[in-house]
C-alpha cells in the first residue's frame, strides 16, 4: 500500500510539472470569474469573556450583505469591487453557549449607516493575493479596516518556492490508512494583522471530490515580516532570557519544502535552540480561515461558497484567561452577471497592503488613543484633567479607606488624557497646578497635586509630555527629587520617543549644567541609554522583526533613529567619557556606554577595561595632587568598566567574550577583576568548551576568592530551571564531573541563583546574588542582588541592587578627619569640635616604639585607599546610578547639617512632610485587530501610589552651652509616620466600535485592588544623664490592609477621561460562580488592648479556611502553599481586610516602654582603677529644679529617669539591688546545678571574676477603663572563660497579679588546653539548669525546675579505646604533626581537640508542680503531638514505658551519633508523667550543633558557615608559626633573644603591635603588646611548670594575674578601651593567660611558650602585618614584609620583621611596590630586580600596542551581506561577513567558506534583497545558518583594511 501511494505521489508530481489536472489546472485556481457579481451573507462578531470562570460574553455582532464584483481582469490579475449593504449592528452582554457557530439570541440590532454612505472599495488581486487596496477619498480608516478584514479572506495563496516558481503539492507519508492525506504548503502572506507566515492545508481537491476544494489557512504569529497594526507600549524589559519557545509543529509539513521557512523547533533537554523564532507577544493568538469552494470553468477559477475567518486571542491572567473571539462568516447567496459597473474613479485613496491602520488624526507615539472619544477640544480635556488630579491628590492625602480603591482608574484615565494633549495645553496645566505649589504658603494638598501632575505626565508616554518635562528640567523648575523621579519614569514608559526627545536627553547628559549634579546625571544617563538602546537597536539579520518595525517607525514624522543615529549617540558619550573631569562623570559615562550595548560602545570601553596608558593619564589629570594611589584607582575603574559590559554580554557576546576571557584566564590579574570578568562571561552563555576550560583550570587555581566564586557559579548554573538557561545548564552538567571536590565557606566570594518556572502559565522567577569579598576590608568589593520575573517572552526586573566599592573601610577615618562630615555638620551648626585624645607618655612605651621605628618602615599606603563606590538600584524598572566619594560625602554632610539646623530652629514645633510617587510598571497595551477590522485593545496596567507622610513631627536636641548638639543631654522625637501603598492591577480586553458617532467599548475587565499601610504614631525619649530610654506607641485604629478581586463584563462610552463624579463603567455585570461566598473572620490579640481583625470573602473554600492547618500542600512546602494562596492563580473573586480595632472591654490608648541599661561590673572596676569614680556615678533621678524646667515641654518631649517613670506608672518606688548582690543570689539558687560539674566554680563566681550586665524595664498600657503594668529586670553574668553563665529574669504584672522569676545556669568542666591534645575525656561534662517560680491568682505559687546533663556517649567511649586504624584520619595526622613540632598549629590536632571535647549524650528532666496551669498543659500536649506528626517516620512509641518516670516529671535523652559524617544523627527518647515513652530514631540535625567544652554554640555556627575556625587565628610556638590565613611558616632562622613583630595593625597610628622573643631554644617566649601606642603589656613565662600565676608588666607597673580573679584595665581615654586579663585553668597541661582587648575583639592566649591570637574584628581584614600575615583570607602572597615586599623564601620573610639592624642579605626573589626596596637587599639584587621590571613593562607596552593596532584595524572594517552570482542565480551570505568600510582598501585577505542562499534573478524578492544590500549593507529575512538546501562557497574575506 505504501508503494502504491508513493507511485501515486510521483504521478501527481509529474502531472503537476506539466500543468497538473487536465494539463493546465492549478491546485488552487484564481478566485471568481470575470464580469460576474457575487452576493454573500455577511456576519461578523467580536466577543470577550472569561471562559474558565463563566460563559458570559460582551461584544458586538454585525449582519449584512456583501457584494463582490469582478471589475477588471487581465490574465491572473483581477480588480474586485467590495461593498457592504444593509449592515445591522448590535451589542450584547449575556451568557452564550456557542459563541462561534450560532447567532446570538435576544440581541437588538440597528442599522449601521456609516458603512453604506460610502462607495465601494476596490482590491487588486494577483495570483489570489491582494496587491493594492483603493478606497474613496472621504472614507475613514475605521470603515476601510472593515474592508481590509474582508480582503484578507479573499487572499487564498498558491504554492510557491523560494525562487518563485510554481511548486506542486506534495502529500505526506500515509498516516490515516488508505485515505489521501492533506496537502500542506507555506507562504509569506499579507493580512489585516500584518505579513506573517501562513500555512495552507488542502483537505479535498478536484482530483478527489469532483470539483470540490476545501482548504484551511492558519496564521503563524511567530514569523512576521514588515510592520503590523499593533501598538505595544513599553514597560516590560527584554534584557533577560526569553522563556517561551515554539511548542507546536504542523505535523503534515514536509521539512524538504521551503527549508528556509521551516524553522520550527520543540524544546528539548538542551532548551530552546540558538536560532529560533521567539514568541514576540504576551498574547496567544490563533487565526484560521476555512474555505468551502468549487472549481469551475474547467479548473480555471474557484468559487467561494462559504468562508469563515476565526480568530482567538488569549490574554493570560495567571492560570485564568481573558478570551477574545472574532470572526467573519460569508455564505454565497447568488451569482449573476454584472448589471452596473461600479465607478472606480472615486476610489482615489490607495494602499499597497491591507494591514490594519489606526484612525486618522492620531499622535504617532500613542496611536491607540485615536480609538477613544477624546472630547470636543483639548481645552475641554484640560478642564476634566484638573478636577481629576485634584480628586486623586485628595484621595492620597485623605484617611478614608473607602476612597483608596479609586486611585488606579484615575491614574489610567489621567495618563491616557495627558498623552493626547498637545504641548501648549500641558504647559498651561503646569502653570495652574505645578508652579503655584512652589510657594511657601502652599498647602500639603497643593504639593501633592503638583507631584501627581508631574508623575502622570511622565507616565503618559507621549512625546509632547516628555518634551514638556525635559524643558522643565532644563529650566531647573523641578526639585532634585522630582527630576530623578521623572527621569526614572522615562526609562520604561516612553512609547515611541522622537529624535527631539533623545536629543533633549542627550543635552541633559552632556550639558555642563548637570554634570556636577551626579544624582541627576546618573538618572539621566540611564534613561538616555535605555531609550536609545531600545529604540535604535542595532540592525542584524537575527533581529529582523524588530528591524522591520523600526523601518516602519522611521517613515513616521519625528522618528528617524537608525543605526547611524545610534552610532552618533555612542560617539557623543564616548567624547564625554574622554573629557570627564572627575570620578562621578567618569563612572557615569562608563555605565552609560555599557547600557547602550553597541559594538562601538564596547570598543570605547576597552581601554578602560584594560586600564591602558591613556586611561592612567586621564586619571592622573583628575588628581594632580597625587593624594591617591594610581594602581588602586585604575583597578577600581577597570572593575567598573568590566561590570558595565553586562548589558552588551547577551546582545554582542562575540565582541565581549574575548575581552573578559582574556582577563579571567590571566592569573596575573587582580582577583576582583577576574571575578568581574567571569561574571560577564557567564552572562554571554559560553560554549561547553569554555566551561570545560574553566573547570580544568580550577584545579590549579591559587586564589581562594576566584575559586569559591567559580565553584558556586558552576554549581548553581547546573541547577537552573528556566528554559532559556537549560542549554547553559546542560553544558555545565557535561563538564561538572571534572570539577575537583572542594568547598568554601560563606566568608568567600559567591555567585548564586535560585530559579522557579511554571510551564503551564509560562511564569518564572529568578533570584541571583553575587558577592566579591574584599581582601582588605569586611565590606565586599562588589555585590549584586536581583529578582526578575518572567511572563511569557517578557522579563521584568522586580528589584536589583549592586555596588562596587573601594576603600569604604576608611570612610570612618574620613568622617572624623579635618574636612570630614562631622566637621562639616558642626561648622554648619556653628559648634566646636571635640578635643583630641591625649597620648599617654609612658617611658617604657616610648622605648619600644622608638625601637620599632628605628628598625623598619611600614608600608601603610595600601591601607589608605580613598573611599569610593558606585551604587545602583532598580525597583519595578526605576533605576538609579550613584557614584560616591569624599566630595559627595562632603556635600551630603553639608545638607545634613542644614537639615539639622532647620529641625533645631523650631524645637517642639509641629512639622509635616509628604512624599508621593506614582508608578505604573509592567504596562502592556496591545491593539490587535480582529479579523473583521474592529480593534481589540488588550491591556495590563499596574498603577501604584507610594505615599510616605510625616505629620506632627516634633524634635528636641538638648545641649549645654558650648556643647555639640550631635551629643545632646536630652533627645526626643515624636510624630506620626505613615507609609502607604495603593496598588491596582487592571487587566482588560475590549473592542470599540469606531463606526458610530459616539463610540462604545465592550469587553471584560478583571481588577485587583490592594491597599497597605502601617501608621506609627510614636515618640522616643533618651536622657544621657540617667541612661534611660523610653518608647511610646499610640495605637491607630484603622484598616491597614485591604484587598479586593473581581471580574466583570461591561459596556461603556469609550472616553479617555470621565468626570470625577461619573462612574468609570456605565453598565457592567460582575462575573460570579456562586451566590454565597465563603466567609473568614478572625480576631487576634484581644487581650493586648488592641486587636487585629482579619475578614475575608472568597469564592474558593480553600482561601476561607486556615490554610496553615488544613492545606496538605502546606505540610509539604509551607512557602509554596502561602504563595499559591496569595497569588490567586485562578483569579477567584475575593475581598479581604485587616483592621486594628480597639478592645471595648479594655481600650488601650497608649503603650509605653521604659528601659535603663546598667553598667557592667568590669566597666565599673575599670573606671574606679583609673580614678574616674564620681560622687554619683550614674544619677538615678532628675533634680526638682530639672523637673520644674521640664514642665515647659510636652510630656513626650521631656527628660526622663527610670525611677521617676516607675513611680509615676506604678505609684511606688522600684526595688533596686547592686549587681554584686544579684550575682551572689543567682549563684546560690543555681548551685545545685553547677556544683555537679565543678565545685571550684564557687570560688570563681565572685564579683572580681564575673562580668555582670543588667537591664531594667517597665511596660505600661494606658486606657480609659484600666491600665496594665509589667516590670522587671534581666541580669546576665558570665565568667571570662565562658565556663559558667548565669541569667535571671524577673517579670511582674501588677493588675493580674502574675509574677515570674527564673534563674538559669550553664556550666562545663574546665576547657581543654588550647595547645595540647591530651584531654581527660571521661571527666568532661556539662549541665544546663533552671529554676522558675510562677505565681498566678488561680494556681498560687508554683516552682518548675529542669536540667540537662551532658556527658560522653557510649559511641564516644568506644572510640577512645579503639585502635588507631579505626579512628578518624586526623588522629594519625596529629601524631605526625607532633613529631614535627607543629601540633600547636596543626589543623588535624585541632580537630582532635574538637572531637574529644564534644558531649554527645544529653539527659534531661523537668519537674512540674502538682497543679499546672491549663495553658502549659495544653502547650506540652501540643508539642508532644506535633513531634509525633512531624517525626512520624522516626517514631517508636511504647505506651507502657519500661522505665516509668516519676509523677509530675518529664524525662528524656538525646544521643548524637557520628556514624554519618555528612549529617549529624540523633536518637531522642521522651518519658512523660502518664507513663508514655516516645523514641525517635535517626533524626537528622545540623552538623554544627552539639554541646562542647571547647567551643560555644555561637562559635560552632560560625565554624560551620565558614567551613573553618570561628575566627581567624594565628599560632606561634617558637619553632613554627601558622598565620591568620592558615599558612605555616618555619621559624628555625628566628634568632634567640631578638624581638620580632608577630602581628601589627598596619596603619600610621596602629591599634596594636605584638612582639615576640624566643627564649631557651624556643621552649620559652616573651611577648610584648603595645595598644594604641599608649599601653605596653609585657608577658613573661610563669615561674613554675604548670604554674597558675603570671606576672604581667603594664607600662611601668607590674601585676600578678592569678586564677579565679580577673584583672581589668582601661588602656585608652574611652570606656570601651578596656582589657581583661585572667588565668584559665585546665585539667591537662599548663594553665594559660588570656588577654581580651574588648573594643578590638582580640583574644590573646599565652602559656609561657605558645601564643595564640584570635581576631574577630572584620574591619581589620587585610590591614595587618607581621609574621601572622595580613588576615585577608588568601593563601597567596602570604610572605609579605613590613615594606610591602613579597618574598619567595621563608627566611627572608622572617628576617624582615626582626627589630635588629643587621643586614643578612636576601636568599630568594622578591617583589616590592613602586619606589620601595627591602632593607636587606644588596645593590646587585636591586639592579637585577630593575632589569626584570623593565622587561615586564616592555611586555605590557607591547600588549597595549597590539590591542591599539587591532582597534585601529577594526575601525576600518564593517559587516555586510556578501552578494555573488552563481550558476545563473544571485546568492546572498546567510551571515554578514567582514568587509572594508567605504574609502578603505583591502590590505590582507584570506579565503573562507561562507554559507549562501541562492535565488532566481528575476524574482521580486531577489530585487528587494539587492536593494537592501546596496543601501543598507545587510539584507533582512535571510535563512538562519545551518539549514538544509543552502550552498557553501569559498570567497575572499579581508582581514586587514587601510588607506
TrEMBL record:
Residues in VWFD domain copies: 1511-1713
Bias type Low complexity, positions: 1165-1186
Coiled coil: none
Database matches in PANTHER family: VITELLOGENIN 1-RELATED, VITELLOGENIN-RELATED
Top-rank taxon: Eukaryota
Signal peptide range in chain numbering: 1-16
Keywords: Disulfide bond, Glycoprotein, Signal, Storage protein
Protein name: Vitellogenin-2
PROSITE patterns named in the record: VITELLOGENIN, VWFD
Pfam families, per database record: Vit_open_b-sht (PF09172), Vitellogenin_N (PF01347), VWD (PF00094)
All residue ranges annotated as the Vitellogenin domain in the record: 32-783
Segments for region (Disordered): 1165-1193
Keyword field contains Iron: no
GO molecular function, one term: nutrient reservoir activity
Amino acid at each position: 500500500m505504501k508503494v502504491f501511494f508513493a507511485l501515486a505521489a510521483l504521478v501527481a508530481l509529474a502531472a503537476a510539472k506539466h500543468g497538473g489536472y487536465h494539463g493546465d489546472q492549478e491546485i488552487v485556481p484564481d478566485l471568481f470569474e470575470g464580469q460576474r457579481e457575487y452576493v454573500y451573507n455577511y456576519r461578523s462578531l467580536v466577543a470577550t469573556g472569561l471562559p474558565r470562570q463563566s460563559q458570559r460574553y460582551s461584544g458586538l455582532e454585525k449582519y449584512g450583505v456583501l457584494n463582490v464584483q469582478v471589475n477588471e481582469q487581465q490574465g491572473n490579475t483581477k480588480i474586485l469591487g467590495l461593498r457592504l449593504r444593509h449592515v445591522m449592528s448590535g451589542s450584547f452582554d449575556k451568557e452564550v453557549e456557542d459563541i462561534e457557530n450560532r447567532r446570538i439570541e435576544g440581541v437588538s440590532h440597528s442599522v449601521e449607516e456609516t458603512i453604506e454612505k460610502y462607495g465601494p472599495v476596490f482590491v487588486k488581486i494577483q495570483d489570489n493575493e491582494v496587491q493594492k487596496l483603493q478606497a474613496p477619498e472621504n472614507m475613514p480608516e475605521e470603515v476601510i479596516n472593515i474592508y481590509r478584514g474582508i480582503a484578507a479572506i479573499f487572499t487564498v495563496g498558491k504554492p510557491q518556492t523560494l525562487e518563485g516558481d510554481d511548486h506542486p503539492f506534495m502529500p505526506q507519508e500515509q498516516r490515516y490508512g488508505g485515505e489521501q492525506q492533506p496537502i500542506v504548503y507555506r507562504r509569506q502572506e499579507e493580512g489585516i494583522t500584518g505579513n506573517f507566515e501562513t500555512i495552507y492545508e488542502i483537505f479535498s481537491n478536484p482530483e478527489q471530490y469532483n470539483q470540490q476544494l476545501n482548504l484551511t489557512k492558519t496564521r503563524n504569529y511567530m514569523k512576521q515580516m514588515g510592520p503590523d497594526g499593533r501598538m505595544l507600549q513599553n514597560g516590560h524589559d527584554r534584557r533577560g532570557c526569553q522563556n517561551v519557545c515554539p511548542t507546536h509543529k504542523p505535523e503534515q509539513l514536509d521539512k524538504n519544502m521551503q527549508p528556509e521557512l521551516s524553522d520550527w523547533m520543540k524544546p528539548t533537554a538542551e532548551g530552546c535552540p540558538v536560532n529560533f523564532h521567539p514568541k514576540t507577544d504576551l498574547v496567544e493568538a490563533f487565526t484560521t480561515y476555512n474555505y468551502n469552494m468549487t472549481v469551475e470553468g474547467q479548473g480555471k477559477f474557484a468559487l467561494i461558497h462559504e468562508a469563515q475567518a476565526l480568530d482567538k486571542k488569549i490574554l493570560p491572567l495567571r492560570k485564568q484567561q481573558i478570551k477574545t473571539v472574532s470572526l467573519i462568516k460569508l455564505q454565497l447567496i447568488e451569482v449573476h452577471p454584472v448589471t452596473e459597473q461600479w465607478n472606480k474613479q472615486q476610489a482615489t485613496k490607495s494602499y499597497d497592503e491591507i494591514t490594519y491602520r489606526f484612525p486618522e488624526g492620531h499622535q504617532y507615539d500613542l496611536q491607540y488613543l485615536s480609538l477613544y472619544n477624546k472630547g470636543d477640544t483639548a481645552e475641554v480635556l484640560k478642564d476634566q484633567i484638573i478636577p481629576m488630579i485634584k480628586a486623586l491628590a485628595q484621595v492620597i492625602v485623605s484617611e478614608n479607606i473607602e476612597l483608596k480603591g479609586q486611585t488606579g482608574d484615575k491614574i489610567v484615565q489621567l495618563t491616557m488624557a495627558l498623552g493626547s494633549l498637545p504641548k501648549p495645553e500641558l504647559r498651561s496645566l503646569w502653570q495652574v497646578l505645578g508652579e503655584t505649589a512652589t510657594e511657601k504658603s502652599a498647602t500639603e494638598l497643593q504639593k501633592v497635586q503638583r507631584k501627581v501632575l508631574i508623575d502622570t505626565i511622565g507616565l503618559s508616554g507621549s512625546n509632547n509630555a516628555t518634551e514638556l518635562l525635559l524643558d522643565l528640567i532644563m529650566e531647573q523648575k523641578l526639585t532634585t527629587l522630582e527630576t530623578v523621579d521623572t527621569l526614572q519614569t522615562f526609562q520604561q514608559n516612553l512609547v515611541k520617543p522622537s529624535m527631539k526627545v533623545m536629543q533633549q536627553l542627550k543635552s541633559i547628559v552632556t550639558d555642563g549644567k548637570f554634570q556636577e549634579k551626579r544624582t541627576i546625571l546618573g538618572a539621566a544617563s540611564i534613561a538616555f541609554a535605555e531609550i536609545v538602546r531600545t529604540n535604535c537597536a542595532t540592525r542584524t539579520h537575527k533581529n529582523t522583526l524588530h528591524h522591520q518595525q523600526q523601518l516602519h517607525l522611521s517613515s513616521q514624522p519625528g522618528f528617524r533613529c537608525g543605526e547611524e543615529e545610534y552610532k552618533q549617540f555612542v560617539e557623543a558619550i564616548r567624547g564625554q567619557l574622554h573629557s570627564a573631569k572627575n570620578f562621578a562623570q567618569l563612572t557615569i559615562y562608563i555605565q552609560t556606554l555599557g547600557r547602550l550595548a553597541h559594538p562601538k560602545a564596547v570598543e570605547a570601553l576597552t581601554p578602560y577595561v584594560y586600564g591602558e596608558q591613556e586611561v592612567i593619564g586621564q586619571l592622573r589629570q583628575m588628581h594632580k595632587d597625587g593624594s591617591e594611589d594610581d594602581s588602586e584607582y585604575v583597578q577600581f575603574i577597570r572593575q567598573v568598566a568590566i561590570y558595565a559590559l553586562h548589558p552588551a554580554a547577551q546582545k554582542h557576546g562575540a565582541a565581549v567574550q574575548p575581552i573578559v576571557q582574556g582577563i579571567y584566564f590571566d592569573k596575573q590579574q587582580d582577583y576582583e577583576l577576574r571575578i568581574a570578568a567571569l561574571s560577564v562571561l557567564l552572562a554571554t552563555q559560553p560554549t561547553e568548551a569554555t566551561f570545560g576550560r574553566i573547570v580544568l583550570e580550577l584545579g590549579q587555581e591559587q586564589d581562594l576568592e576566584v575559586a569559591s566564586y567559580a565553584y558556586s557559579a558552576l554549581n548553581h548554573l547546573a541547577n537552573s530551571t528556566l528554559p532559556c538557561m537549560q542549554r547553559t545548564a546542560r553544558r555545565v552538567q557535561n563538564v561538572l564531573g571534572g570539577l575537583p571536590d572542594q568547598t568554601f565557606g560563606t566568608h568567600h566570594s559567591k555567585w548564586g541563583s535560585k530559579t522557579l518556572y511554571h510551564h503551564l502559565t509560562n511564569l518564572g522567577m529568578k533570584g541571583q546574588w553575587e558577592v566579591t569579598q574584599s581582601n582588605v576590608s569586611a565590606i565586599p568589593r562588589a555585590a549584586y542582588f536581583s529578582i526578575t520575573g518572567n511572563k511569557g517572552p517578557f522579563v521584568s526586573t522586580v528589584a536589583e541592587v549592586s555596588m562596587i566599592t573601594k576603600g569604604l573601610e576608611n570612610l570612618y577615618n574620613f568622617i572624623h578627619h579635618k574636612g570630614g562630615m562631622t566637621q562639616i555638620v558642626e561648622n554648619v551648626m556653628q559648634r566646636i569640635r571635640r578635643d583630641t585624645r591625649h597620648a599617654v607618655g609612658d617611658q617604657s612605651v616610648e622605648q619600644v616604639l622608638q625601637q620599632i621605628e628605628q628598625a623598619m618602615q611600614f608600608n601603610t599606603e595600601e591601607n589608605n585607599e580613598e573611599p569610593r563606590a558606585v551604587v545602583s538600584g532598580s525597583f519595578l524598572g526605576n533605576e538609579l546610578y550613584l557614584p560616591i566619594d569624599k566630595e559627595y560625602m562632603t556635600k551630603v554632610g553639608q545638607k545634613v547639617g542644614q537639615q539639622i539646623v532647620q529641625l533645631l530652629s523650631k524645637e517642639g514645633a509641629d512639622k509635616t512632610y509628604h512624599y508621593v510617587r506614582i508608578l505604573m510598571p509592567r504596562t502592556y497595551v496591545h491593539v490587535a485587530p480582529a479579523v473583521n477590522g474592529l480593534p481589540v485593545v488588550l491591556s495590563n496596567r499596574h498603577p501604584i501610589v507610594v505615599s510616605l507622610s510625616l505629620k506632627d513631627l516634633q524634635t528636641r536636641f538638648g545641649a549645654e552651652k558650648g556643647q555639640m548638639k550631635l551629643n545632646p543631654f536630652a533627645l526626643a522625637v515624636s510624630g506620626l509616620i505613615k507609609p502607604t501603598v495603593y496598588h491596582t492591577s487592571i487587566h482588560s480586553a475590549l473592542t470599540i466600535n469606531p463606526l458610530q458617532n459616539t463610540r462604545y467599548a465592550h469587553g471584560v475587565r478583571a481588577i485587583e485592588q490592594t491597599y497597605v499601610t502601617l501608621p506609627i504614631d510614636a515618640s522616643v525619649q533618651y536622657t544621657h544623664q540617667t541612661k534611660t530610654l523610653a518608647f511610646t506607641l499610640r495605637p491607630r485604629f484603622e484598616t491597614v490592609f485591604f484587598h479586593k478581586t473581581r471580574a466583570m463584563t461591561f459596556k461603556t462610552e469609550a472616553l479617555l477621561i470621565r468626570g470625577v463624579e461619573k462612574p468609570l463603567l456605565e453598565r457592567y455585570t460582575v462575573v460570579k460562580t456562586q451566590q454565597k461566598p465563603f466567609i473568614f473572620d478572625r480576631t487576634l490579640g484581644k487581650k493586648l488592648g488592641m486587636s487585629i481583625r482579619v475578614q475575608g470573602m472568597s469564592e474558593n473554600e480553600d482561601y476561607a479556611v486556615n490554610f496553615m492547618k488544613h492545606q496538605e500542600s502546606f505540610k509539604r512546602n509551607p512557602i509554596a502553599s502561602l504563595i499559591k494562596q496569595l497569588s490567586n492563580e485562578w483569579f477567584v473573586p475575593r475581598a479581604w481586610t485587616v483592621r486594628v480595632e480597639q478592645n471595648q472591654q479594655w481600650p488601650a490608648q497608649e503603650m509605653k516602654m521604659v528601659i535603663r541599661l546598667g553598667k557592667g561590673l568590669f566597666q565599673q572596676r575599670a573606671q574606679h582603677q583609673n580614678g574616674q569614680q564620681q560622687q554619683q556615678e550614674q544619677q538615678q533621678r532628675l533634680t526638682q529644679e530639672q523637673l520644674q524646667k521640664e514642665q515647659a515641654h510636652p510630656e513626650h518631649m521631656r527628660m526622663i529617669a527610670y525611677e521617676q517613670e516607675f513611680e509615676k506608672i506604678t505609684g511606688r518606688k522600684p526595688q533596686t539591688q547592686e549587681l554584686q548582690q544579684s550575682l551572689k543570689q543567682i549563684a546560690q539558687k543555681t548551685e545545685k546545678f553547677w556544683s555537679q560539674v565543678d565545685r571550684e566554680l564557687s570560688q570563681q563566681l565572685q564579683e572580681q571574676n564575673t562580668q555582670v550586665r543588667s537591664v531594667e524595664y517597665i511596660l505600661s498600657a494606658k486606657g480609659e477603663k484600666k491600665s496594665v503594668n509589667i516590670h522587671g529586670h534581666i541580669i546576665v553574668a558570665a565568667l571570662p572563660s565562658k565556663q559558667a553563665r548565669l541569667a535571671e529574669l524577673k517579670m511582674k504584672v501588677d493588675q493580674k497579679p502574675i509574677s515570674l522569676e527564673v534563674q538559669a545556669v550553664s556550666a562545663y568542666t574546665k576547657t581543654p588546653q588550647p595547645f595540647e591534645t591530651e584531654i581527660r575525656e571521661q571527666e568532661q561534662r556539662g549541665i544546663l539548669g533552671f529554676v522558675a517560680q510562677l505565681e498566678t491568682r488561680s494556681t498560687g505559687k508554683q516552682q518548675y525546675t529542669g536540667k540537662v546533663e551532658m556527658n560522653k556517649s557510649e559511641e564516644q567511649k568506644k572510640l577512645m579505646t579503639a585502635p588507631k586504624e579505626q579512628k578518624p584520619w586526623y588522629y594519625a595526622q596529629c601524631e605526625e604533626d607532633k613529631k614535627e613540632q607543629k601540633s600547636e598549629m596543626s589543623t588535624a590536632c585541632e580537630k582532635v581537640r574538637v572531637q574529644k571535647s564534644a558531649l554527645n549524650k544529653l539527659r534531661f528532666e523537668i519537674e512540674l508542680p502538682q497543679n499546672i496551669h491549663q495553658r502549659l498543659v495544653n502547650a506540652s500536649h501540643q508539642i508532644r503531638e506535633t513531634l509525633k506528626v512531624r517525626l512520624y517516620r522516626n517514631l517508636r512509641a511504647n505506651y507502657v514505658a519500661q522505665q516509668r518516670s516519676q509523677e509530675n516529671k518529664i524525662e528524656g535523652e538525646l544521643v548524637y551519633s557520628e556514624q554519618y559524617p555528612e549529617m549529624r544523627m540523633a536518637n531522642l527518647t521522651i518519658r512523660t508523667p502518664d507513663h508514655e515513652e516516645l523514641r525517635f530514631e535517626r533524626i537528622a540535625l545540623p552538623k554544627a550543633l552539639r554541646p562542647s567544652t571547647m567551643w560555644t554554640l555561637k562559635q560552632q555556627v560560625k565554624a560551620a558557615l565558614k567551613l573553618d575556625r570561628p575566627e581567624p587565628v594565628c599560632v606561634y610556638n617558637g619553632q613554627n608559626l601558622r598565620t591568620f590565613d592558615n599558612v605555616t611558616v618555619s621559624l628555625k632562622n628566628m634568632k634567640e633573644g631578638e624581638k620580632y613583630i608577630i602581628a601589627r595593625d598596619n596603619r600610621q597610628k596602629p591599634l596594636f603591635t605584638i612582639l615576640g622573643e624566643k627564649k631557651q631554644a624556643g621552649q620559652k617566649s616573651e611577648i610584648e603588646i603595645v595598644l594604641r601606642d599608649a599601653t605596653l603589656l609585657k608577658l613573661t613565662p610563669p615561674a613554675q611548670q604548670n604554674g597558675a600565676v603570671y606576672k604581667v608588666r603594664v607600662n611601668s607597673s607590674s601585676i600578678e594575674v592569678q586564677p579565679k580573679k580577673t584583672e581589668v584595665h582601661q588602656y585608652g581615654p574611652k570606656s570601651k578601651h578596656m582589657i581583661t586579663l585572667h588565668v584559665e585553668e585546665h585539667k591537662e597541661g599548663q594553665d594559660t593567660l588570656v588577654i581580651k582587648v574588648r573594643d578590638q575583639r582580640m583574644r590573646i592566649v599565652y602559656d609561657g611558650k605558645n601564643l595564640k591570637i584570635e581576631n574577630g574584628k572584620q574591619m581589620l581584614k587585610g590591614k595587618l602585618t607581621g609574621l601572622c600575615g595580613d588576615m585577608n583570607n588568601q593563601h597567596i602572597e602570604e610572605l609579605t614584609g613590613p615594606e610591602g615586599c613579597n618574598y619567595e623564601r621563608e627566611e627572608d620573610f622572617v628576617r624582615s620583621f626582626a627589630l635588629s639592624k643587621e643586614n643578612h642579605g636576601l636568599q630568594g626573589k622578591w617583589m616590592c611596590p613602586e619606589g620601595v626596596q627591602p632593607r636587606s637587599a644588596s645593590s646587585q639584587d636591586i639592579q637585577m630586580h630593575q632589569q626584570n621590571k623593565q622587561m615586564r613593562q616592555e611586555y605590557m607596552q607591547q600588549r597595549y600596542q597590539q590591542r591599539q593596532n587591532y582597534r585601529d584595524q577594526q575601525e576600518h572594517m564593517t559587516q555586510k551581506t556578501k552578494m555573488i552570482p552563481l550558476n545563473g542565480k544571485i546568492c546572498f551570505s546567510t551571515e554578514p561577513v567582514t568587509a572594508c568600510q567605504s574609502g578603505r582598501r583591502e590590505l590582507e585577505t584570506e579565503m573562507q567558506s561562507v554559507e549562501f542562499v541562492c535565488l532566481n534573478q528575476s524574482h521580486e524578492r531577489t530585487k528587494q534583497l539587492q536593494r537592501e544590500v546596496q543601501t543598507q549593507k545587510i539584507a533582512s529575512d535571510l535563512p538562519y545558518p545551518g539549514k538544509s538546501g543552502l550552498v557553501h562557497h569559498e570567497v575572499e574575506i579581508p582581514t586587514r583594511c587601510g588607506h
